[in-house]
Structures are given as structure tokens and as C-alpha cells.
Amino acid sequence: MRAYATEEAALEDVLRLSEGMTYKSSLAGMNLGGGKACIIGDPKMVEGREALFRRFGEFVDRLNGSYISAEDMGTSVTDMMQIRVSTNHVTGTDPKSGGGGDPSPWTAKGVFGAIRVACERKFGSADLKGRRVAVQGVGHVGGYLTGHLVQAGAVVTVCDTNERAVEAMRQQYNVAVVPPDNIYDVSCDVFAPCAVGQTVNEVTIQRLDCAVIAGAANNQLSDRSVYEILRKREILYCPDFAINSGGVICVGAEINPGGWKESWVEELVSRIPETTAKVLDRAAATGKFPDVVAIELAQERIDRVRAEKQARGPGTSRL
Ligand SMILES: NC(=O)c1ccc[n+]([C@@H]2O[C@H](COP(=O)([O-])OP(=O)(O)OC[C@H]3O[C@@H](n4cnc5c(N)ncnc54)[C@H](O)[C@@H]3O)[C@@H](O)[C@H]2O)c1
Predict the structure, then answer these.
(1) Distance CA 109, CA 113 (A)
(2) Which of 30, 51, 151, 159 could form a disulfide with 183 if both were Cys (CB 3.0 to 4.6 A apart)?
(3) What is the DSSP string of 145-211?
(4) In which residue ranges of the chain is pLDDT below 70?
(5) In ligand 1, which atom is closest to the CA atom of 197?
(6) Does any ligand 1 atom lie closer than 6 A to the CB of residue 217?
(7) What pTM value is reported for the model?
(8) How many other C-beta atoms can be found within 10 angstroms of the C-beta atom of residue 43?
(9) Using an 8 Å Cβ cutoff, are 244 and 216 in contact?
(10) What CA–CA distances, in Å, run from 283 to 89, 237, 274?
């Protein structure tokens, strides 16, 4: 849910996001395909919110399960429970009703593991003690990620457009805070975008003073033209959809036969660092940009699973 400037901008974003979900699910080891929905609106809306999400659920229901919704930016478990009133095809629901709850701690865990791998490749050590990390956006995922980083001894700078989110970080951790636009000028080892998409673009890259970009936000790069700029600047980029899959793993577990199980989520999230290493190593070996490699790996798995499914015949499970 986001206050997009135009319907066109929303459509472009949701199409990119849905494509990303396909690759994300595949790299995470799930046969979910990919889909995304967006609601054009102010995520802070209060009045009429329940009705809006129930109505949204009616639209989702019409798709008969070919699209399963889940929470993301600007929405919460409470909103998912309203969608649940109108359809069963929603995940990220309340643990009290069998759901996995807020997926963001899992997303943060996966991103944290990926940051360690990226630092290992870039600096020769995965130890984050003393590493300077700039976190853009400390909402659900960025907040949990900040916690992991601080615990690992990293020197963390955060920003957020929401003063309350920043205040929560100040109260919990010893972090530096900068105004939202100044985050691009913070001299750091790792820049972790955890707010909105496309914050890494032609303009901001020139300002970034980092060696690694690895964060939770979807669609971090504005477009493919930035590949070359990042390469020239020798900034190691971790593809967002390869490292932020903790959330889809968590929500995807709800539709497993037998329902949501923490052990299953833990197992798949624990593989994210390995996947990150595979992407970065193939990129280094081939000279291809990490995004290109990650899409290749995702597509290879999609082709393999599709062939296996065809060989097995219809009626096989999604996961
Ligand atoms: N929640 C998940 O499990 C999950 C999973 C995968 C990907 N993601 C992606 O990670 C990102 C963050 O997700 P979230 O669930 O934490 O969302 P959220 O809405 O809880 O947090 C985003 C935060 O970013 C802040 N923000 C917005 N614009 C900003 C800007 N220009 N500069 C600084 N801060 C800004 C918001 O105020 C908010 O606090 C999104 O791009 C989302 O799509 C989330």
C-alpha cells in the first residue's frame, strides 16, 4: 500500500514486483510462482481501513487462489485478517488463527545473513564488528535488521521519513540518526535500503560512499542502466529478490500441507546466505551483474521444476 503519484506508476511498480516475486520464490526453493497486488492509498489511513481491506479481499477471492495475497509495505497482520474475512487466499495472518504472523523478522534475518556473505566476499571477513552500515528505512524489516547489526557490533546509521520509527531505534539501540536525504552521503561499508523501491538510481549512486549494497527493499535499482555505474564504482550489489525472501518463505509456509511450521521457515531462511554466495560467486566468475545471475539461477530452477512437474503429471503440490 503506497500513495503512488499516478495509476501508471502503481502499475509499473506492481508488475516489476510481481516479476521479482517469481524469481524470489524460485531462489528461495518454493514453487509458488509470483504475484503481487498494490493498493493506491495512504498507508497511514485509519478511517475506512477495515472496509478497504475486506473489499480488497473480495477482488483477491475472484482469482480463485491463482493469486495468494500477503502483507508488505504499508500493511500489517491486522489488515491481512480483514482480507481473511472475504477470502481464504491470504497469508501473513495472525498466529492465533494458524498464521505465521509478521514475516519481517524472517526477512531481516535473511538480509542480515546475506550482508555477512557480501562482507566476506568484499572484505575477506563476515565479521560485522566495526563495519559501518547505513540503514535506509527502519520500519518493520529495517528495525529488526538494525537490531541484528547492532548485536553483531556494527556501527549503524539510520534514517526514516517517520520520526516515530527513528525514535524507536534511538530508544532501543546506540545508533546514529541522519535526515532521510542525507543517508546517501553517509560514508559506510554497507548501504542497506529497507524503505521504498528505486532509491538506488543514477543520481543517488554518485553520492553513495559504500562498498556493498544489500537491503530488504524490493526493486532497489531504478533500472538496468545502473548496473554499469555500480560495476565501475566497484560496489558489490546483492540482488534484493535473492536476499529478502525470508518474508515470502514465512507466509508461503502457511499454505504447506499441515500448516505453518517454524522449523520449515527456519530451514529455508537459513539457506539464504548460501544462495547469496552462489549468486555473488557466479557473478564474479562470469563478469555478469549479480541481478542477471540471480535471474538466471531462478529461471534454471523454474525450468527444472516445470519439467519435473510435467513428467509427474497434474495435481502435484505447489510447494
Ligand atoms: N516486510 C517484509 O517481510 C518484506 C519482505 C520482503 C521485502 N520487503 C520490502 O522491504 C521494504 C521495507 O518493508 P517493511 O515491511 O519494513 O515496510 P514498512 O512500511 O514497515 O517500513 C518502511 C519504512 O521506510 C520508511 N520510509 C519510506 N520512505 C522513506 C524514505 N524515502 N527514506 C527513509 N525512510 C523511508 C517508512 O517511514 C517506514 O518506516 C519494502 O520495500 C518492502 O517491499 C519487506
Answers:
(1) 6
(2) 159
(3) HHHHHHHTT-EEEEE-SSHHHHHHHHHHS--EE--GGGGGG-B-SEEEE-SSS--BSHHHHHH-B-S
(4) 315-319
(5) 41
(6) yes
(7) 0.93
(8) 15
(9) yes
(10) 37, 10, 14
Active site residue 36: yes
Q: How many angstroms does the Cα of residue 218 sit away from the middle of ligand 1?
A: 9
Question: Would you state the cell numbers that stand for residue 90, as one nine-digit string?
Answer: 491470504
Amino acid in position 35? G
Residue whose CA is at the smallest distance from ligand 1 atom 17:
73
DSSP letter for 136, please.
E
> What is the torsion angle, in degrees rounded to the nearest 10, for the CA atoms of residue 17, residue 302, residue 291 and residue 136?
40
Q: pLDDT tens digits for 33-75?
A: 999 999 999 999 999 999 999 999 999 999 999 999 998 889 9
Decide whether any atom of ligand 1 lies within 6 Å of the 74 Cβ: yes
d(CA 228, CA 244): 23
6, 245 in Cβ contact below 8 A? no
